[in-house]
Design a protein that fits this description.
Elements lengths: L3 H38 L4 H33 L15 H6 L7 H10 L2
Amino acid sequence: MASKKQIDELKIILEEKCIQIENNIFDAKNNIAQLKENECKDDFDFAESSSDSFTLEAITKQQVNELTEIKNALQAIKNNTYGICDMCDENISIGRLKAKPFAKYCTSCREIYEEENK
Ligand SMILES: [Zn+2]
């Protein structure tokens, strides 16, 4: 079980990451808007630039997902349910939380989850 102090440290990391990702998403959305605008103006580069905005949208989507997970983790800290595996209700090891502070599953459940979602 993670101690109060360890959770406080992870909370700071999560909050910083949250701000960072929000900024990234904000920038990416501006870039996508700009790329799309250019696509409309310039037919010549259409194929290339539309794939740029596509890639950027995919990355942004990933970041939005990560942001959701981080916000869930911060909420869990508030609810005192942080560090508990979503699947088996066991405590997630502190080593795993340090590596991935918004981990939802313990190591063994994560393996099962990944196996099922291949
Ligand atoms: Zn588990």
